[in-house]
Amino acid sequence: MNQFTKHLLSLLFLILCSSTQAQIIDVQHYYLDLTLNDSTDVIQGKARLFIRFNEKPQKFQLDLVGQDRDATGMNVVSVVENGQKVAFNHESQLLTIEPAKGNQELYRTYEISYHGIPADGLVIAKNIFGDRTFFGDNWPNRAHFWFPCVDHPADKATFEFLVTAPDHYQVVANGIQLEETNLADGVKLSHWKTNVPIPTKVAVIGVARFAIQYLGEIHDVPVSTWVYPQNRTEGFYDYAIAEKVLDYFIEHIGPYPYGKIANVQSKTRFGGMENASNIFYFEKSVTGKREYEDLIAHELAHQWFGNSATETDWAHIWLSEGFATYFTDLYIEHAYGRDAFVERMKKERQQVLDFSKQVQTPVVDMATKNYMKLLNPNSYQKGAWFLHMLRNRIGDDNFWQATRDYYQQYALSNASTKDFQRVVELVSGQDLESFFQQWLFTGGNPVLGTSWTYQKSKVHLEVSQIHRSEVVFQFPLEVKIIGEDGQFVKEILEINNVEETFDIKVAFKPVSVELDPDTWLLFGE
Asked: Do the beta carbons of residue 524 and residue 351 sit within 8 Å?
């Protein structure tokens, strides 16, 4: 068995255990005291977890990667409960703790002292300019590589990071900064704290030589840029566009959920990582040409959808990625007009269709447990297209009201697809069960074959569902019949069967028939 297979199997085991542990305990607050150095990649950690037991206190487990043969992983030195040492066992990726006996208190504090070299999660590496850096990169469940936690999106908590590091570094983290103090021996202490709960997937630190620009406030939200000093001018210019994007989302969704927003050049493995209140962008996103405005919009949209209103489990990741994708599209529509928006929607539609030729999985994918594989066009582009079709189905006013109501109801909490459906049905007054079931819980997408003839002022149109799956999709199909002098007629046809025929009256001789002229339907031809 190779190392990758071993890693994958241990992750699958951890997934099952994390879900169970989230039912036994609820972590209320993480106080993470970390010491970093330049001589080795070893981190010294002291994690204080404030835990509420959901039932009578009993043996429980936290996610934390133990030391492996390659010398990476964490070594736990001690576990202390309310000042008293307690028994623990650390095997593979699970830290099992035995609560102190004779105490029935449901709220307890555990202090875990540990050290080691992170195998993942906290990336310690040189940046593109050769400078040493430390960047948290937790998605999907990689936080447990560098601190003990319940590494699942449903167990949200507040966070504090105390980072002691050589004083030539600046430190950025979630929340607001409480302290920065130069200590003896050339080290500096930085203290950050969140005021609201966040999931572990977006709870990180960034430690590097930064050039920092404070841009001011948008709707009382402080906005800053953190980039490498070597590309300071370009980075300040590129990331400043976040002010305009942030203003749009606050105006159209609701109040920003966190105490600040920092846009950070980083070593993330992703194009962008939406860490709560301190977004990490890939290093080469800094060009001086503002080439990544849509990436900035996507990660900012996540602050509402994914970070604040968080999916209950990974299968509902479209509530994060699909929303961020579509709200980026909506921002582009607002900033650059309908044509730019339609161009994006057509490109995203083709990405969905190309993906469905390879994999016929539903958007809400309960079967896939390798979460990296959920980062696919189903979660992003098809999730966005679902919202686009929903907007057309219930109308603009209802769509905006429903998304605002959904966010307001589940802000700083967790939601499932059914939770979103209930909100939309309440706002629109429509029964949307079949609509949600068809587009989110059923694999594949409609592919249509058409033919038409003209005779006696009528267009005879035949529509067939020719996709390779046996699913019969039901949807409204708008058609545009165009004459040789530019005249046209639009009709909305209800498609309910594999084969449909329609006779459409026209007052001119047609030269072409266009399907979905206004780009509202996810389909292929």
From this structure: no
Q: Which of 118, 36, 108 is nearest to 79 (CA)?
A: 108
Contact 192, 141 (CB under 8 A): no
* Distance in angstroms (rounded) separating the CA atoms of residues 363 and 506: 39
Calpha distance 14→396 (Å, rounded): 42
| 63 and 144 Cβ atoms separated by less than 8 Å | yes
Q: How many CB atoms lie within 10 A of CB 462?
A: 13
Tell me if 352 sits within 8 A of 345, measured CB to CB. no
Q: What is the pTM of this model?
A: 0.94
Q: Cis ω on the peptide bond leading into residue 229 (within 30° of 0)?
A: no
Judged on CB neighbours under 10 Å (0-12, 13-18, 19+), 289 is: exposed
CA distance 97 to 76: 11
CA atoms within 13 A on the CB side of 272: 25
320-335 pLDDT per residue, tens = 999 999 999 999 999 9
Instruction: Read off the CATH number of the domain in which 369 is found.
Output: 1.10.390.10
Query: Which residue segment(s) compose the domain that 494 sits in?
Result: 448-515
Two tokens, residue 185:
């021996």
Do 12 and 146 lie in a common domain?
yes
pLDDT tens profile 421-440: 999 999 999 999 999 999 99
Residue type for position 60: F
Length of the chain: 525
Q: Residue 254 sits in a domain of what CATH number?
A: 3.30.2010.30
CB atoms near residue 437 (< 10 Å): 13
Give the model's pLDDT for residue 456: 86
